[in-house]
Amino acid sequence: MDTENTPVKQEYNITVYTENQIGLLSRIAIIFTRRKINIDSLNTSPSEIESIHRFNIVINETEDVVRKVTRQIEKQVEVLKVYYNTNEDVIWQEMALYKVPTDTIAEKASVERLLRENGARAVVIRKDYTVFETTGHREETDNLTAALQPYGLIEFVRSARIAIIKDSEGFNCKLREFERTEPGQDVVENEYLNSREKVFTM
Amino acid sequence: METAQQEVLTAKEPDTGIELTGSVALLEGLVVEGVDTIFGYPGGAIMPIYDALYDYSDKLKHILVRHEQGGIHAGQGYARSSGKVGVVFATSGPGATNLVTGLADAQLDSTPVVCITGQVFAHLLGTDAFQEIDVINITSPVTKWNYQITDATEIPEVLAKAFHIARSGRPGPVLIDITKNAQLQKFNFKGYTPCRHIRSYRPKPIVRKEYVEQAAELINSAKMPFVLWGQGVILGNAEQEFKAFIEKSGIPSAWTILGAGVIPNDHPLNVGMLGMHGNYGPNVLTNECDVLIAIGMRFDDRVTGRLDKYAKQAKVIHLDIDPAEIDKNVQTTVPVWGDCKETLPLLTSLVETKQHAEWLERFKEFEKKEIDALIREELFPTCEEMTMGEVIQSLNELTNGDAVIVTDVGQHQMVACRYAKLNHTRSNITSGGLGTMGFALPAAIGAKFGALDRQVVAIIGDGGVQMNIQELGTIMQSGVDVKIIILNNQFLGMVRQWQELFNERRYSFVDITSPDFVKVAEGYGIHGKSIAKREYLKDALKMMLEHEGSYLLEVMVKKENNVFPMVPQGCSVSEIRLA
Fold first, then answer.
1. Measured on CA atoms in the order B56, B446, B183, B159, is the torsion positive or negative?
2. Does A124 touch chain B if contact means CB atoms closer than 8 Å?
3. Which of A138, B329, B442, B540 is an S-S bond match for B74, by CB 3.0 to 4.6 Å?
4. What's the order of all strands across the beta sheet hosting B456-461?
5. Would you call B180 and A201 a contact, using CB atoms and an 8 Å cutoff?
6. CB A16 within 8 A of CB A163
7. Does A108 contact chain B (CB < 8 Å)?
8. Quick check: do A10-88+167-181 and A91-158 share a fold?
9. Which CATH number is associated with domain A10-88+167-181?
10. Chain A contact for B400 (CB, 8 A cutoff)
11. Superfamily of the domain at A91-158
12. CA B209, CA B232: separation in Å to the nearest integer?
């Protein structure tokens, strides 16, 4: 096999700035689905500007495919801007929550040390369980999960990846300009959904 | 009950406009957008809109189709012949799902269509109510944009956005789903303002002058430049700009089937059709040119054949309005982003006046070879049975290239695209990207409404016509004047051709029996005739064209005839076969 010319797959972080619009998540997801690309991580949340959302999508693909996918996403009417970056180009974090029995933590000094070494912070302490959180890369949070397993880890959850691009000036400036000149519109949700028979009958 | 209903129907905003229902507001918007014809089919969930339409019959002509798929294909035909936006109404559930094929077709062929679907009451959404379906998610992959309206106040703004999105930039289909309560709801209507701008939507990329300069430099230094043009030229209304460009630069130019008609077939620089069943010269010489200039075309796989063997020797200049098309299939040397209406004049001003006489002569040599090998026999056959090509040839003589030709999908489509004489733009209406059988009959109806002063001739296979044959009813009721030619080879011809060439003649389920088409037409009050002998062909075509109103002409053609040349699937364009 010609390894020299085989494009290399690697992790790419795709950053998408969009209008806050119902159904857009599905439109963006379709672009990956139709090419049979698995989304490894997806985070969507409001950006620093009201009415504009920021998606962070992680996929493992070749650059050529990522570029094409990016252009397809940017083509969507409600998408303002799309960037793609390798892991070297971004600073990223994931957050993890660990629920462990409080008595184990209290009794076993090594657990306490383990948590401290991993920079875990207690979020909730109850009689029966305690919830810790850490942030970091996948390997780091994975390590702590593995280490806590023997001590009766009750529940574990990890967030999607969020990433900041190292080099770019970001989109903040442009976003603010957009918002100043053209404020976004409110999303119209279905206010009749729970009205039921109060509204109409057939 | 009445009080509760009133609560929702009453406007919340201060009274500065007039009280209208959502349905009336929608129709007001359509009138402002310049809509004159709507293709549609009523049903429970869109009844309020149809009720309002009753009072708008002097402003908005409604054509009752026989199936929603027919409705959207008619909308597409209307859009393609007129250059305006096609408008289609359908009800919820099956009405909406029947639009999907047409939406996909319009999406792939960049046809501006606005579909309005009715939806169940907003409070029933997600409850599997009668005829409720998630039309937004079903249509997302096949629309340029879609939106669900649950409140009448949204209607003016969303409709304006829909028209702007459908027709601007790279055009495409848009769907608006309106819940029944929003259609009935009264609100304070403050007028309809067409949309010109959407914050997150850039229909045209900014033209980068440096790329135009680089492109011109490449063209000026080229010894064997070659232009490929597509529908982008038509969509950008850039036919004149295109003609000026190729005439100044003297570059031989070939077209994709959706680009047909931009310049007449007999223009000296028009060297023919590209692609799987395109002409011999343009296909072979794609792999010999030194600079390939693609204008408003997207390097579809039916045009390129094997990509790894496609124009590898050439430097590629790609002019396109859609940045996502650049480098999608073929790696470009110079991308010229932008509307070709803007970019072509810039390029023309920078290219040198030239004549590539020797290079053009090479195309002519190939043309001669192709004529000798197959075109002569196809157009002026010596065999007893009629060929599809000779029917088109006879039609050309009678219409002189002035008719709008609407084709379905299959062998007849390729034959018609290859041989139909086209003197004018917007004259070739066919389903290119999706290859939708059943397209032509309804699209021809729409095409006629979009160009009432032009002769519209639909050329359809015996398979395709049966996929939407119910639209003969639409012709009957609307009185639209469409000439229908059925080229009947008693086979699903294109599949049969593939089976012959690639599956050792294992004719698996391609033998199709047809009804007596003339009798069927008669049942719909449409005159018709069926002929099987060459001696009747010209008179029959003449009679059809001169007939007042619609006419169906069935021509029995050679059963096992193949469309050549052909680039077999998986082969490069230079491996095109003449037989």
1. negative
2. no
3. B442
4. B428-430, B404-407, B456-461, B483-488, B551-556, B527-531
5. no
6. no
7. no
8. yes
9. 3.30.70.260
10. no
11. ACT-like. Chain A, domain 2 (3.30.70.1150)
12. 20
Does the domain at B384-557 match CATH 3.40.50.300? Answer given as no
Q: Which part of chain B has CATH 3.40.50.970?
A: 18-189, 384-557
pLDDT tens track of chain B, all 579 residues?
344 444 444 445 556 789 999 999 999 999 999 999 999 999 999 999 999 999 999 999 999 999 999 999 999 999 999 999 999 999 999 999 999 999 999 999 999 999 999 999 999 999 999 999 999 999 999 999 999 999 999 999 999 999 999 999 999 999 999 999 999 999 999 999 999 999 999 999 999 999 999 999 999 999 999 999 999 999 999 999 999 999 999 999 999 999 999 999 999 999 999 999 999 999 999 999 999 999 999 999 999 999 999 999 999 999 999 999 999 999 999 999 999 999 999 999 999 999 999 999 999 999 999 999 999 999 999 999 999 999 999 999 999 999 999 999 999 999 999 999 999 999 999 999 999 999 999 999 999 999 999 999 999 999 999 999 999 999 999 999 999 999 999 999 999 999 999 999 999 999 999 999 999 999 999 999 999 999 999 999 999 999 999 999 999 999 999 999 999 999 999 999 999
Residue-range domain boundaries for chain A = 10-88+167-181, 91-158
Architecture of domain B209-362: 3-Layer(aba) Sandwich (3.40)
Whether the CB-CB separation of B337 and B208 falls below 8 Å is answered with yes
Closest to B5 (Cβ–Cβ): which among A74, A188, A200? A200
The CATH architecture one would assign to domain B18-189 is 3-Layer(aba) Sandwich (3.40)
Alpha-carbon distances, residue B220 vs A74, B254, B291 (angstroms): 34, 19, 10
Name which of A16, A171, A199, A201 to mutate to probe chain B: the one with the most chain B Cβ atoms within 10 A of its Cβ: A199
Q: What is the ipTM of this complex?
A: 0.92
Reading the block at residue A32, the tokens are 């990956």
Does A176 reach chain B within 8 Å, measured CB to CB? no
Question: How buried is B415 (Cβ within 10 angstroms: 0-12 exposed, 13-18 middle, 19+ buried)?
Answer: buried
